UniProtKB/TrEMBL annotation, chain B:
InterPro entries: AAA+_ATPase, ATPase_dyneun-rel_AAA, CbbQ/NirQ/NorQ/GpvN, P-loop_NTPase. GO terms for molecular function: ATP binding; ATP hydrolysis activity. It comes from the Bacteria. Residues 36-214 form the AAA+ ATPase domain. This is AAA domain-containing protein.
Length: 382, 303
């Protein structure tokens, strides 16, 4: 850090801290009041005249992820170095642009009175769900996307079961001295009945990697909604997008409202509908998350058409590693449903040998099939 | 706070005295954690020295280090306390043998402190001494949500409630250090209680200094060559880029072999102490070991 361009004549620390906190919030960091107070306290312990000290005091109290640091650095520069730190501004002008997705992606609710045939909107409500279930996502109208949310809300996405390390009471299994003792207390200290416990089973983690590049655009909307439905259902699930780079969107998708969640997520994804460097993005996932533990024992689902503008060898190698780390790898390719489909895309052909299950994912029915595949992965191999 | 330290710079000197070279950010984070009595949450790649921070702190504060290694499925009975059931049962038998009639009395005795087994978290709270202990909660990311929630409670109140006994509170909050390898995102609520710092790999000059500090037997030239080679490896796109821990392991291995300078043969013989994946070793070899040795910055220039 460069040296003292200090916040000249600092106002009471708290005011400055509050104003800075507001800037960070505007930039997208989750900075609650408690953090702001922590920042002010930290500054009291350090030299508030030293830029370096202020910088670190803020960084250790106001950020909590390495990803936060870039935003923090930019905001810090703008706020403290523009002289703004001296005057706490009620409404800082600092705004970071959050790309707003196309209107049509998030249809305004209930604006359509009549559809193209001149029929009333009421009719849409009764629009045969069955048709929608098998309709290709690429052909969806905005209203049908809204309908899709309702369908997805009922879709349960939960990983195949695995044995956990936690124990639960059971009629037989390992001896349980704690509960035996508790029971003994009720029978005058005599362990009349012995208690046992066994390992609990719990769902495996599910990791979803969704391609959001240009060639996937007709499907990525629907698939992102699918990701949201999965995260919102409270399943043990992690979601990432693959594009020119890798973006983790689990946190953004935790909001209940699907439209809001997607808006947040697309703020996080900067490369939506951009080019595809599939191999690099998958590799980044394996390097940064997968190998450290996220993919271990998990069911990993890649949703992509397999178009890769990068080096195909990277994709093949990354998928091979991913397949070794993960419990099961599932590839979902919306194009697979096309009659006479062959995995001609170089990326797809390279990845296929390292995939356990290959599915289509172009309509709602195929997503149901995916949910079944995710849950069933264990049954074949106990 | 260790005696005689009132500014973060002084703390940095003390750490260095214990052979731990921390950058300004980490020193400030530790300083604030001690000053404000808040837990310190450290993240970073494996081998950057997260756990070491707690060890060094216990040395400079001259206080015991209490370590809780987290793992999947860890629960209260492994982390905080457990009743000693076998002894309790024996106690009942003994009471019977001595003809103790008062059942309520026997029961009350059973849940006495003497039948309680303290696990690390309770040990840290019960510690009595001139200085609070250093509590290292290692690899929090390996535990699960339920345990995280429990930690949250302990780290905000520094007290536990045992139903049969009552509340046990710390005299003074222990110096808590939490580490995570980021295999998963730890809950925000837990991070909010803590001061957060992400430890990066050190830069070249700092790494040379670390090597010289920790492996004093290594020659200056060797230290520089090793640091340059590991820095090279980190840019090589490996499964597991070497951390400072690996740099030190490697240097020690080289010193044990009597090396004074790095050459291709030595690298090949000792590669296993710095790269722990077969694929990584192959990649390094494919890139050319001589390149690793060759790309050394000249000594003395900017040291």
């Amino acid at each position: 850090m460069p040296e003292e361009a200090a916040p000249a004549k600092a106002p009471p620390m708290l005011d400055a801290a509050v104003a800075f906190g507001r800037v960070l919030r505007g930039a997208g960091l989750r900075v609650g009041t408690d953090r702001v107070v922590g920042f002010a306290r930290a500054m009291e312990e350090l030299d508030a005249g030293s830029r370096e000290d202020v910088y670190w005091a803020g960084r250790v109290t106001l950020t909590s992820r390495p990803e936060d640091v870039t935003i923090y650095d930019r905001a810090f520069e703008l706020f403290w170095d523009s002289g703004g730190g001296a005057r706490p501004r009620p409404r800082p002008k600092v705004r970071f642009s959050v790309p707003q997705p196309d209107q049509s992606v998030f249809p305004p609710k209930k604006t359509v009175e009549k559809n193209e045939g001149g029929e009333e909107a009421v009719k849409l409500r009764y629009s045969p769900i069955e048709v929608l279930r098998s309709k290709d996502f690429a052909l969806y109208s905005p209203d049908e996307f809204a309908e899709l949310n309702r369908l997805l809300a009922d879709l349960r996405l939960s990983g195949a079961l695995r044995r956990s390390r936690r124990l639960e009471p059971s009629a037989r299994g390992r001896y349980d001295p704690r509960r035996t003792m508790q029971a003994a207390m009720r029978t005058g200290g005599e362990a009349v009945r012995h208690r046992f416990r066994k390992t609990r089973v719990q769902p495996r983690r599910v990791v979803l990697l969704c391609d959001v590049s240009g060639s996937m655009a007709p499907y990525s909307r629907a698939l992102l909604r699918f990701l949201h439905a999965g995260v919102a259902s409270g399943a043990k699930l992690e979601a990432f997008t693959l594009g020119t780079r890798l973006t983790r969107i689990t946190k953004e998708l935790t909001t209940r409202d699907p439209d809001q969640a997607l808006r947040q997520a697309s703020g996080a994804i900067e490369d939506i509908s951009g080019g595809t460097r599939l191999g690099d993005a998958v590799k980044e996932f394996v390097d940064r998350w997968g190998q450290r533990g996220m993919a271990r024992g998990a069911v990993v689902v890649v949703l992509s058409d397999g178009w890769d503008r990068g080096d195909v060898a990277v994709l093949a190698e990354s998928m091979r590693r991913l397949n070794r780390l993960a419990y099961k790898t599932i590839w979902v390719n919306p194009l697979k449903s096309a009659p006479g489909y062959k995995p001609l895309a170089a990326g797809m052909a390279a990845a296929l040998p390292h995939v356990d299950v290959f599915l289509s994912g172009h309509n709602f029915e195929s997503l149901e099939e995916l949910a079944r595949a995710v849950a069933a992965a264990a049954e074949r191999e106990g | 706070m260790p005696p005689g330290v009132s500014r973060s710079g002084e703390l940095g000197e003390l750490l260095r005295g214990e052979s731990y070279l921390a950058d300004e950010g980490l020193v400030t984070a530790i300083f604030l954690a001690l000053k404000l009595g808040r837990p310190l949450f450290l993240e970073g790649e494996a081998g950057v020295g997260k756990t070491e921070v707690a060890k060094v702190l216990s040395r400079i504060l001259d206080t015991p280090l209490i370590r809780l290694q987290c793992y999947e499925g860890i629960d209260v009975f492994q982390a905080v306390y457990e009743w000693d059931y076998a002894r309790q049962l024996l106690h009942i038998r003994a009471a019977e043998a001595f003809g103790e009639e008062d059942r309520a009395h026997v029961e009350r005795d059973l849940y006495d402190r003497e039948f309680l087994v303290s696990r690390p978290l309770l040990q840290a709270l019960e510690h009595r001494g001139p200085m609070p202990p250093v509590l290292l909660i290692d690899e929090v990311d390996r535990s699960d949500d339920e345990f995280e929630a429990y930690l949250l409670e302990i780290l905000s109140d520094f007290a536990v409630t045992i139903p049969e006994l009552g509340t046990i509170a710390a005299e003074r909050p222990p110096v808590a250090v939490l580490t995570s390898n980021r295999t998963r995102e730890v809950h925000d609520a837990l991070k909010r209680r803590c001061l957060y710092h992400y430890i990066e790999h050190p830069g070249f000059e700092r790494e040379v200094e670390i090597v010289k500090l920790r492996v004093p037997e290594a020659e200056e030239e060797l230290a520089r060559q090793v640091a340059a080679a590991t820095e090279n490896m980190r840019s090589m796109d490996l499964y597991k880029p070497p951390g400072v821990a690996e740099t030190l392991d490697w240097t020690e291995a080289l010193v044990a072999l009597g090396a004074r300078e790095l050459d291709e043969k030595l690298v090949e013989a000792t590669l296993g102490s710095v790269l722990k994946y077969r694929e990584d070793q192959q990649r390094a070899k494919a890139a050319g070991l001589s390149a690793l040795v060759g790309g050394v910055r000249s000594a003395g220039g900017d040291a």
